[in-house]
């Protein structure tokens, strides 16, 4: 079935019994096969494979299926193009920059450096009322930014109004030291959080926001993937990498197998597999 026929078939089918999927938040939404295709294309899959995966997922979709089940099915079908399969897991990879938020702060700092900012993580800044630890201080073109990083490690969690108001309140105490405030988060924003941020002029970079300039787009544009995107990196290996201050796949390539083994204490067999996978993406 061609992709055009697939879309018409899916649209016609909805005129009868609709298929709904359950998001991680528990919310139900109508199944949309186009989302599957677009997600595969964003991961770098060929149009031919993305269309075929969309058709396979459509065939197997059932009412009440979770979005997590759809992602697993899509990932399995993407195995035909391993690099795309790896990139498909970007959101989960960023969510794995835990259990604390510190690796996420380091990740944001490294990302901003590639965009021309000078950054410093965890700096203590004297405010009008109290001293505060700022997640990331970023400077570029004579402007100094107070960066607040909000990390969530649970699927379906949104960054809400309280986080945005808290961030702006901190900025009001520190605005003699900073020109602007900027919130980075690894999940989507609630509508109220977006509304408040826009009202007070608080810049936000989150998942798919702003449209076309979200966190995922910044990462993909610079290919600054976190080490957690690698499927050969398990929990123990991740802890070793973070302990050695290694957050990005780029760092793995710069160190090479021998340097990585020295830095982490991992076996040569393990580091060679990690570096090989990092090279592919």
Can you put this structure into words, describing what you see?
The chain folds into 3 domains: 3-88, no CATH class; 105-215, Trna Endonuclease, Chain: A, domain 1 (3-Layer(aba) Sandwich), CATH 3.40.1350; 226-280, DNA polymerase, domain 1, CATH 1.10.150. The protein contains 13 helices and 8 strands. It has helices at residues 3-14, 33-42, 47-60, 67-78, 82-88, 90-95, 102-114, 161-174, 191-200, 215-222, 235-243, 249-264, 268-280, and strands at residues 20-22, 28-30, 65-66, 118-126, 131-140, 143-150, 180-185, 203-205. The chain starts with a helix and ends with a helix. 35% of the residues are buried.
Number of domain modules: 3
Q: What is the correct CATH architecture of the largest domain?
A: 3-Layer(aba) Sandwich
Rounded to an integer, what's the Rg over CA atoms?
A: 21 Å
- How far the N terminus sits from the C terminus, by CA atoms, comes to 31 Å
Regions with little confidence, pLDDT below 50 for 5+ residues:
12-16
Q: Strand portion, in percent?
A: 15-25%
Tell the overall outline. globular
Largest sheet: 5 strands, mixed
Strand count: 8
Classify the fold: give the CATH topology of the largest domain: Trna Endonuclease, Chain: A, domain 1
Query: Number of helical segments?
Result: 13
Q: List the helices and strands in order.
A: HEEHHEHHHHEEEHEHEHHHH
Alpha-beta content class: alpha/beta
The average pLDDT value, as a whole number, equals: 90
Widest sheet: strand ordering: 4-5-6-7-8
CATH hierarchy class name of the largest domain: Alpha Beta
Share of residues in helices: 40-55%
């Amino acid at each position: 079935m061609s992709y055009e026929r697939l879309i018409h078939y899916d649209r016609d089918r909805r005129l009868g019994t609709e298929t709904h999927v359950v998001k991680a938040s528990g919310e139900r939404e109508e199944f949309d096969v186009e989302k599957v295709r677009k997600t595969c294309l964003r991961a770098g899959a060929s149009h031919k494979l993305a269309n075929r995966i969309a058709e396979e997922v459509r065939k197997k979709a059932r009412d009440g299926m979770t979005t997590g089940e759809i992602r697993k099915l899509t990932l399995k079908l993407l195995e035909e193009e391993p690099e795309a399969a790896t990139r498909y897991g970007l959101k989960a990879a960023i969510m794995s920059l835990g259990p604390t938020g510190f690796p996420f702060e380091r990740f944001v700092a490294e990302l901003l450096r590639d965009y021309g900012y000078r950054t410093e993580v965890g700096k203590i800044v004297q405010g009008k009322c109290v001293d505060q630890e700022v997640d990331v201080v970023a400077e570029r073109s004579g402007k100094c930014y107070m960066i607040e990083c909000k990390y969530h490690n649970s699927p379906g969690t949104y960054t809400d109004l309280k986080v945005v108001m808290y961030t702006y309140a901190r900025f009001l105490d520190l605005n003699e030291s900073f020109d602007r405030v900027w919130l980075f988060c690894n999940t989507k924003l609630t509508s109220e959080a977006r509304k408040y941020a826009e009202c007070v002029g608080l810049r936000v970079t989150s998942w798919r926001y702003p449209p076309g300039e979200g966190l995922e787009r910044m990462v993909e544009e610079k290919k600054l993937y976190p080490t957690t995107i690698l499927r050969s990196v398990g929990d123990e290996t991740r802890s070793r990498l973070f302990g050695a201050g290694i957050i990005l796949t780029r760092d793995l390539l710069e160190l090479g197998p021998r340097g990585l083994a020295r830095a982490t204490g991992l076996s040569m067999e393990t580091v060679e597999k990690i570096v090989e996978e990092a090279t592919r993406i």
